């Protein structure tokens, strides 16, 4: 895809997520890797609802601004994910309601906030580790993400929201949708308890599908 097509794709996915309530106000940010290895990111304080393709921020892998409006304050967190996952082509960070609720829940397992309740959650994400609360925009978030990203394509920031990657932006959005739905199911089921997949089920899915 050309740079122009990728810019338009970012605008389109952002708008679609905005319209479905995945991000409201100026919350969240998105990035993708351009063919020349630089990163296209949403500008800071922009809304997913009305991004402009020509105004998107372009930064180097060192975080240096090349063009467009000033990049998201979380761009270092995105860069940490790209560094650790060479296969990664797109990233979304959301304040989507069910995952953000999960990020505030007492007693969640910091190594995995969501049990394996459905095959598509296992196939697309598998495990969701949690980074302790750190103020938005702090470079410390990037340090935590850097340590987890080689092993995990999605990470939950406590009392904040998720960061989710994919081989392309389209995959990152699909992974985000699956993860948000899984968090919603988790809350629906929590009062009743739930059957989870067995380790054998999980191993079979990982051996059969390669979606991460
Ligand atoms: O979600 C956000 C911070 O965590 C939004 O920040 P930006 O507007 O700088 O992208
Ligand atoms: Zn945020």
From TrEMBL:
Reaction(s) catalysed by this chain's protein: 3-dehydro-4-O-phospho-D-erythronate + H(+) = dihydroxyacetone phosphate + CO2; 3-dehydro-4-O-phospho-L-erythronate + H(+) = dihydroxyacetone phosphate + CO2
Enzyme Commission number(s) from the entry: 4.1.1.104
Listed cofactors: Zn(2+)
UniProt cross-references to SMART domains, sorted A to Z: Aldolase_II
UniProt key word Lipid metabolism: no
Domain Class II aldolase/adducin N-terminal: 8-187
Task of the protein: Catalyzes the decarboxylation of 3-oxo-tetronate 4-phosphate to dihydroxyacetone phosphate (DHAP) and CO(2).
Family: Belongs to the aldolase class II family. AraD/FucA subfamily.
Protein name in the entry: 3-oxo-tetronate 4-phosphate decarboxylase
Organism: Leclercia barmai
């Amino acid at each position: 895809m050309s740079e122009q097509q990728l810019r338009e794709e970012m605008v389109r996915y952002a708008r679609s997520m905005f319209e479905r309530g995945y991000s409201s106000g100026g919350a969240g940010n998105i990035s993708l890797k351009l063919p020349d290895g630089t990163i296209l990111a949403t500008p800071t304080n922009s809304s997913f609802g009305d991004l402009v393709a020509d105004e998107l921020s372009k930064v180097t892998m060192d975080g240096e601004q090349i063009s467009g409006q000033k990049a998201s304050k979380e761009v270092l967190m995105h860069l940490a994910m790209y560094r650790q996952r060479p296969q990664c082509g797109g990233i979304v960070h959301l304040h989507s309601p069910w995952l953000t609720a999960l990020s505030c829940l007492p007693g969640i397992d910091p190594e995995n906030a969501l049990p394996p309740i459905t095959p598509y959650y296992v196939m697309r994400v598998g495990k969701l580790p949690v980074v302790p609360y750190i103020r938005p925009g702090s470079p410390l978030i990037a340090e935590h993400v850097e340590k987890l990203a080689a092993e995990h394509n999605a990470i939950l920031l406590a009392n904040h929201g998720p960061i989710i990657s994919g081989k392309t932006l389209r995959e990152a959005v699909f992974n985000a949708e699956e993860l948000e739905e899984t968090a919603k199911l988790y809350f629906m089921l929590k009062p009743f308890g739930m059957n989870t997949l067995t380790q054998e089920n999980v191993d079979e899915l990982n051996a059969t599908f390669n979606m991460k």
